[in-house]
């Protein structure tokens, strides 16, 4: 009986060994061949357009030639983007395969534990017999020792198998993390290429416009320069809305604040402005409130009079809020904060343009004082810009990559993850804001 059982367990072990050895099968050859062909073609396209670009640059002597240069840049960028899309597709498939591998390994581990449980149960049964009984149960003493040796061998083999599977699972998880990092890098390259392509397309339209007016003599070059300066002045003067009851400021001023914050943190000025714009949009929807009870955190809507029992989380945010307002000489019960977002059931209490809750602001208080040279106010626009940039840098936006910025935006909002609706809205706003900044930079308009 025991020999049959041990033989069964040994066969189970062999089956598991076969599974664990095949979990890292290669990707389908046809798919790999297709990817290799696409990548090879994009390499040729990139080289082709780089050659055209180099030769065209050498002969640039007219507006028409400059337009040809821009066209070569666009075509090269498109080939570059296609190349990166192929790489991203391959990485995405690799990640799916790794997830399947992890699931298979986990199933193998569960099955292995069940097999081990069976062996342990049989071991307990064997322990219940005395040595004479075990010997008498076998035809001869050699059968007894053979069964015992088989049991010990299978037990050791199963233990080795578990160790191998655990090691493979750890390796697979590490590979998945590595692939996610690589996927972020590829997505960042793609995003950067798309941004550059849009810049080139904008410049091409501008060049086509200049060619047209040069032919028709509609305007002189001096008039064109004047038009550009007028548009730049319009961009600088348009109002940049702020959340938290703060008055709107000119875009040119907001840009100066964002650039100053960027110089300290490395966070893109356009990204800081996009975050604050998104916060302003949200703030206009939730309304303005006052704290009315410093014990419970209850508050009231400034305009409607609606009472909010969950305006601030007490004492977590109420205590630091009282400390912040006291340092600044403000009346805590007459200082505007955000109302709660009704459908979510969460708390309000966010302060100023950057919409920090009091407990989070306290984390940055000392750092802000070191940089600004004074006690920072959440309701002061310049201070809020710096605080927002510091926080975004801590959340991973300082490198300026697309993946880092959208992930930081999601964490800033509180949802987390690598993407979210808030983050996507922020990135769309950043694109629009960056276009205005690029216009100011390209045409040399003073920021002051």
From TrEMBL:
<dbReference type="Pfam" id="PF13406">
    <property type="entry name" value="SLT_2"/>
</dbReference>
<feature type="signal peptide">
    <location>
        <begin position="1"/>
        <end position="25"/>
    </location>
</feature>
<dbReference type="InterPro" id="IPR023346">
    <property type="entry name" value="Lysozyme-like_dom_sf"/>
</dbReference>
<feature type="coiled-coil region">
    <location>
        <begin position="53"/>
        <end position="108"/>
    </location>
</feature>
<keyword id="KW-0175">Coiled coil</keyword>
<dbReference type="InterPro" id="IPR031304">
    <property type="entry name" value="SLT_2"/>
</dbReference>
<keyword id="KW-0732">Signal</keyword>
<protein>
    <recommendedName>
        <fullName>Transglycosylase SLT domain-containing protein</fullName>
    </recommendedName>
</protein>
<feature type="domain" description="Transglycosylase SLT">
    <location>
        <begin position="259"/>
        <end position="396"/>
    </location>
</feature>
């Amino acid at each position: 009986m025991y020999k049959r059982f041990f033989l069964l367990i040994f066969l189970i072990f062999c089956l598991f060994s076969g599974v664990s050895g095949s979990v890292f099968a290669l990707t389908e050859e046809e798919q790999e061949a297709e990817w290799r062909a696409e990548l090879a073609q994009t390499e040729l396209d990139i080289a082709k357009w780089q050659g055209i670009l180099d030769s065209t640059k050498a002969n640039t002597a007219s507006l028409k030639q400059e337009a040809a240069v821009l066209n070569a840049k666009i075509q090269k960028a498109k080939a570059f983007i296609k190349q990166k899309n192929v790489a991203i597709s391959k990485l995405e498939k690799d990640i799916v395969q790794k997830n399947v591998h992890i699931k298979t390994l986990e199933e193998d581990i569960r099955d292995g534990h069940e097999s081990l449980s069976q062996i342990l149960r049989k071991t307990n049964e064997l322990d219940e017999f005395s040595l004479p009984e075990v010997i008498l149960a076998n035809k001869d003493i050699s059968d007894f020792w053979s069964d015992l040796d088989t049991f010990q061998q299978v037990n050791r083999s199963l233990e080795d198998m578990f160790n191998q599977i655990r090691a493979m699972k750890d390796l697979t998880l590490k590979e998945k993390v590595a692939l996610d990092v690589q996927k972020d890098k590829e997505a960042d390259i793609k995003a950067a290429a798309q941004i550059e392509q849009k810049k080139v397309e904008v410049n091409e339209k501008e060049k086509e416009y200049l060619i047209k007016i040069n032919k028709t003599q509609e305007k002189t070059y001096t008039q064109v320069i004047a038009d550009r300066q007028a548009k730049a002045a319009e961009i600088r003067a348009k109002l940049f809305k702020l959340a938290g009851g703060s008055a709107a400021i000119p875009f040119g001023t907001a840009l100066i604040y964002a650039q100053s914050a960027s110089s300290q943190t490395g966070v893109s000025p356009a990204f800081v402005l996009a975050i604050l714009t998104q916060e302003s949009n949200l703030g206009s929807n939730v309304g303005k409130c006052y704290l009315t009870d410093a014990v419970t955190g209850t508050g009231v809507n400034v305009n409607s009079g609606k009472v909010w029992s969950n305006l601030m989380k007490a004492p977590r945010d109420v205590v630091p809020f009282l400390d912040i307002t006291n340092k600044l000489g403000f009346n805590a019960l007459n200082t505007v904060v955000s109302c709660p977002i009704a459908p979510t059931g969460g708390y309000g209490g966010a302060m100023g343009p950057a919409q920090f809750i009091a407990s989070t602001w306290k984390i940055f208080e000392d750092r802000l004082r070191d940089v600004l040279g004074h006690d920072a106010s959440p309701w002061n626009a310049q201070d809020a810009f710096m605080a927002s940039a510091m926080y975004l840098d801590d959340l991973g936006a300082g490198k300026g990559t697309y993946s880092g910025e959208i992930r930081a935006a999601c964490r800033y909002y509180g949802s987390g993850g690598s993407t979210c609706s808030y983050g996507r809205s922020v990135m769309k706003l950043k694109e629009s804001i960056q276009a205005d900044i690029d216009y100011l930079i390209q045409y040399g308009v003073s920021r002051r």
